[in-house]
What does this fold into?
Amino acid sequence: MENNSTKWYLLGFLGCVWGSSFILMQFGLKGVNSIQLGSLRILFAAIFLMIVGYKHISKIPLYKWKYIALTSLFGTFVPAYLFAIALSKIDGSVSSILNSLTPLNTLLVGLFFFGLGVQRRQIFGVIIGFFGCVLLVLFGGGENTTENYYYAILIIIASIFYGINVNLIKKYLSDLKPLTISTGNFVIMFIPALIVLYFTGFFDIIHEAKVQTSLGFIAVLGIVGTGFSNILFFKLIQLSSPVFASSVTYIIPVVAFTLGSLFMNETLSLIQLLGALIVLIGVYFSSRK
It folds into this structure.
């Protein structure tokens, strides 16, 4: 019973934190570019986790490092850049709704590659969710609709990567502590992210006022929205199922849209609202046992 209550608390907390991440990324992009944002987010999270979890690195068996590397790639490294690039062109509220396709993709990845059982209603949910996604992408705002849905596709790719990550952790890393997995992930990502940041020319503009302001938002994003939240998310995966854990994306759009409307004057058209509702209905059916 205690585990059952804990997983719901973790789900709600992560939904609020990750829903807030979209507005933090948008504020961060006011001073740095997309690639710099992705790298800085990873670096802040890596520094935090290496400080609090350095003792756990030695607890990772040698044969598990390949899975740690894969989960770092699919769960954080590539999505961090995909989200940053997409949010430079499309609203955080739309991005968060597209991100709610993660449970659908978790189900599909689990079905085709991890032997996860599937029911008819879940297949029905996948089809519904895909239709809602099409409405969101094709009727997105912006002067250039083609550009809009090209960037929206990046969020969908990230959600597929998240689905791969959740299934990998559940199958291969459930015996490790969440802090151990998180620290191992970011130890691997630290040097590549630093190299990418160096070649963006970030250190030539770090003295600018707008850059330093952005760094404050990105620090919160990296430490709380990535580092600390990853620990809790891995704990949630271990306490529940891959699809339940990825259902945190139910909550994210509500928080993201609320903050986006308050601070960024974001709005959704009626067709987009319909698409959002259809996506969430699809996610609901796909996530039910």
About this structure: DSSP finds 13 helices and no strands in the chain. Confidence is low (pLDDT under 50) at residues 142-146.
